[in-house]
Amino acid sequence: MLGEKYFQLDMSYWGRSQRLVIQILCIWALAAYGLPALVLETNKMKYLGFPLGYYNCAQVIPMFFGFLLLVFNGVQEGIEAAQTDGKPAVEAASSSALNAMLAKVYVAYTGGFVFFVLFLGFLEAVGVPDQAIGILFVIFTLGMYAAIGIASRTSKRDDFYVAGRNVPPIFNGMATAADWMSGASFVGMAGTLYALGYDGLAYIIGWTGGYVLVSTVIAPYLRRFGSFTVPEFIASRYQGTMQLPGGKVVELSGVSRFLATIVLLSCSFTYLTAQVYSTGVIVSRFIGIQFEVAVFSGLIGVLFCSLLGGMRAVTYTQVAQYVILIIAYTVPAICMSTTQDDGFNKNNPVEFLAYGGTLQAITLREKEMVLLGLASKVTPYLEPKWRRVDFFALTFCLMVGTASLPHVLMRYFTTPSVRSARRSVTWSLGFILVLYMTAPAYAAFAKLEVYTNVIGTPLSVLPKWIFTYGSIGLITVCGKAVTSVNEAIEACAQATSGDYLLKLKDLKISKDAMVIATPEIAGLPYTIAGLVSAGGLAASLSTADGLLLAISNALSHDIYFRLIDNKASIQKRLMISRVLLVVIALISAGTAASKPADILSMVAWAFSLAASGNFPALCLGIWWRRANAQGAIAGQICGWGLTLAYLLGTRYGGWELWGGISNVAAAVFGLPVGFAANIIVSLLTAPPPANVLAMVDSLRDFKVTGEDLTAEELEDIKEKEEALARTQVPEVPNTAEATAQATSEFTAEASI
């Protein structure tokens, strides 16, 4: 017992918190599914030139999710204040000092980066070759990331695994946003909207709506538990034993930990490989080196961060990467926005308010191309093409998958407190919205530019960027990647270039090329194109950092330390983790260097695999006391197994789609099966042990940290909470050994 001074048990706190979460989730679901269901009707109405249905899904719903989290935080903190007679919770003084120090550092860093970009613009103006500017961009960004990794190196366990649990919410929000916005999101989001139109908004709604689940259902409770990894929480929550027919007794926490680690690996490795692949594409494009060499070169920045400083270095590097990627994404959009004069906007720099007229112009041009014979049929950009069930299924899987991805959830282990974890989720969504609210404008500006200035032009005057990106296979003309006018003439089977006008069906632009190519499509300076590529590199590296750390930590902490050698010293565990970092990085680089055809499409599978494998165990483990180890294991095997079978069967096994549902949304089958198996098996077997029930109750109770406690007492509470979380649930067969092991860990760490 830690004593009544530190803990106050008040069941009304949990009751009020439950009701608040239910209310927030009901409003969340109504917004996420109600407004898209009415899109055809609301598209007939206009707002600032926007069809209202499209604008609701592109801008209003994501912003509403952010507003919903602000309301949730305010009410929840009011509930907590009632437990301390209105006294506000106290954060350690060191957290405020760190916040102020980091603010100064990153303001200076941002100013320095802006000056660097302006300097490169000056070099371009005086005639410095484009490739030299690209090289400077890559060297500067990789050098900065490596420098932060060196400056943040550590040998302390808490710093390596969870950044010392003292990252301020705003900076953890920036780091999470960078971790989240991978190369696929940075490069692919606008490209997906360009290609799919309205249907692509399912990704924006799903990925932003998922953070409401993270904040209300999962993250605060994982932070309160104080674990290092997601598998560690699952193993500690789902304890018990089972006697096999031969008489052997199996510790079920080890089984659930192993399965959770398998789920982590399945949804993280292909994601990691895709980031390394994206890094190789960008480095090879702007430095001009061979792709395979570029892949391994890009790993330098990743390894300097994660190898030397673990989560601490990765966190502060990701903050720096967010600054670069968000500047790189918004600057071209603002430049294009200020050129608009469409009757609704004139030189408006607020891009997410300035593309209503552009959308109307796209609709008119679609009809015009059909009348001119440039297209036989054009799918309307602003109207849904998918069935509503497909749109909703994908949105649902992306939301739940977001709340289940280990490399995202582990970011909230790094905050100083539960309240900070909730605030950090809100900051994360706010920083993510900056990019996601810009993406629809980015796609619309590019779409109109291509429709107006490329489709219908003679082959002889095709713009240079078509040949530039054709040389790396990202753009095709008449089915071939062309690098010159003569190749375009040959591809389109024409005798001359002057008589044939390029038709809509002739031009295919890869979704991955859209963001990188748009500055050139819009005629912006090459420095802007280099800036966008630096942003794409930052997005890829930041996610690779987080994924690499999640995988290596799970293998070193959850497999090696917990299941193989539970007496390993801290120094040995950190060494094992660093070795695994290098090995995993080399394997992913080798896989990426082989240019696997399916790797980019498999990235989307990560969300369904994480949702079906992790979410039932996490959600029921927090919100349902009766959930036990047998149920969790059954849920993990059935839910994740069914999802994986559907993914592989429909992709490689020749299976028909079930109900026409795409395999990207496979969790709509696996997730309910996982929940059902967990609940049914839990009810048919014995309840969880008393110590597990006590742990669940402690997750739901409010910890008093009022103004009557000194900074030393607050730090003492923190250490005791973490010790309790790791020792109240035995991780080795002998309880005494577990307690002794935990005690020796803290003693050893204090001596480092």
UniProtKB/TrEMBL annotation:
Keywords: Membrane, Transmembrane, Transmembrane helix, Transport. InterPro entries: Na/Glc_symporter_sf (IPR038377), Na/solute_symporter (IPR001734), Na/solute_symporter_VC_2705 (IPR019899), Na_symporter_ssu (IPR019886), Sodium:Solute_Symporter (IPR050277). Gene3D superfamilies: Sodium/glucose cotransporter. It comes from the Eukaryota. The chain crosses the membrane at residues 20-40, 52-72, 106-126, 132-151, 171-195, 201-222, 258-277, 289-310, 322-339, 391-413, 425-445, 575-593, 599-624, 631-649, 661-685. It is found in: Membrane. One of its GO terms (cellular component) is plasma membrane. Residues 722-752 are annotated as: Disordered. Pfam families: DUF4212, SSF. Belongs to the sodium:solute symporter (SSF) (TC 2.A.21) family. This is Sodium symporter small subunit domain-containing protein. It comes from Polarella glacialis. The lineage of its organism: Eukaryota, Sar, Alveolata, Dinophyceae, Suessiales.
